[in-house]
Every structure is written in C-alpha cells, then in structure tokens.
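Working notes for the structural subgroup meeting. M.R. asked for a predicted model of this chain before we commit to crystallization trials. I am recording the input and output together here so anyone reviewing the notebook later can reproduce the run.

Input as submitted:
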Amino acid sequence: MSLAPRAVIVHRTTEYGELLARHGTHGQAAFFLSSRGRDIEEVRERHERTRGALAAVAAAVPLQWRQSRVERADLDRFLFGPEDVVVVVGQDGLVANAAKYLAGQPVIGIDTDPGRNPGVLVRHRARDAARLLPSATAERAAVDELTMVEAVTDDAQRLVALNEIYVGPPGHQTARYRLGPDDGRTAAEAQASSGVLVGTGTGSTGWLRSLWQQSGSGLTLPGPADQRLVWFVREAWPSPATGTSRVEGLLGRSEALRLTVESDRLVAFGDGMEADALELTWGQSVRVGVAGTALRLLV
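Returned structure, recorded in token form:
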C-alpha cells in the first residue's frame, strides 16, 4: 500500500522573529532598529505576510495528505521522502537552500513578498497552493527541470547545489591547488587564488554573473535548463610556481573540473550554506560537474 503524498513546507525564521529572539520584546527590538534609522513596523508587516502565507499553504494541503514543516536551519537534518511535494514559502534563495537535499521531488515556490523578491524560483502566490498541490503529483506535471551542479571527492563525499559550488579557503587565506579538466589527458595547472566557483544557468543570475561582469568575460552564460556549467577562478595570482591560463570556462554534460588540494585545508560548499561544507585536506581531489539530478520546479 503506497503512502499518501506529504506536503513539506520549507520556511525560514523572519527578521522580526530573529529580532524578538535576540532582544526579547517588541519594544526592545523597536528601540534597536530605531537607533539604526529603521522602523520596526515594516519588519513586522513582512513577518505577518509570511505568517499568513504559511497558514494559507497549510490550509490548502488536501485532507488525505500528510504534511510537515522544516525550518531552513534544519534542512541538513530533515529526511525527505520520494512521495513528498516540497512547498518553499519565502525567497528565491530558500528554494536553492532546499534543492541540494532533494532527489527529484516536485517543488512549488511561494513568494511571500511580491515586488521585493525577484520571483525567479518563488513563482507563485499562497492563494495558488490549492491548485498547485494536487497537480504536482500528476505524471505530466508542468515543471522546469533546472540543472544542478555537484562536487564529488576522491573519498566519495558528495555535495549538490542549484546555483553554484565554491571550492576555496574557509577564510581570507590564499588557496593553493592544481586545476584541470577531468579527462585523464590534460595536465593540471598549479594555481594560487581566493577560490573557484562552478555554477549553473540558475546561478548565472547571481554570484557567477558578478564574476563574469567583473572579468569582462566573453563566455555566453548558460540558461537555467541548459545542461552546461560555467566556472571562474577568483583572483588567480601569477608567480614562478603558479599560473593563470585557466581562469574560466564552460563544462558540458559529460565534462568536469578536477581540483587537487595543495593547502592544509580548503572547503567546498553550495549556495552559501557554509555550515554544510565538505572539508578538503592536502592531496585530496574533488571533481565538479553536472549533477545527475535536477530541480523539478513547478511552472
């Protein structure tokens, strides 16, 4: 007997909630913000809109379904099931935060603050949930298959991201490593830099785009559904021992970069989730390429 679908509502603590947790009362939080030239009422109104959206989505879940909630900080400890329909209530970045823990489950993005969020990934309103939830379980649900990026270490640790994966120092030190195609033929180049960024077409609207613009790159950035990745080396440093001939490029579906660590410690993390990073030590290598799974985002 198959399980009924489960609606998993993903959210994050609002700024107002964080202020109350830090300062204890509304009055203390209001005083803190006013001392910095801000009005707490605007923050509280956004909090109430988020609460209203969460309540509307929860009420729209079909009666025969199960439902659960998970906060952003607990995503790495939450077990998603194959029968889940994931409803992300919040900002575009929250969809990316959840995506790395999924394995093909359909995702519905609910925008809690239209006009303030770009709405690239949170494409719907809370009032749409009653219509979207049943359709998400249909065999031919209308979804966009968004390409993801993955990093796999030589000891089989794996990291997946929707926007980009960063490999580099955990602080402001220089990262030293060898970088080259993972084709077994091309020699790797020794480099010293502030890290390497490999990302998708979805990520090309954010951090990757800023690097692309800053470097005056002639590469054509991929689109969200393109099965290609783009990569950049940040601030590569030329020296007698390190080169700068490989600082950007595109990776096709079957291509990958291989980075071999020549520092005491580097990290790899995806979509800004530094708390869920892979630790890389001297001599360890990591392969970065197109992930085998995609984000199934309802249109």
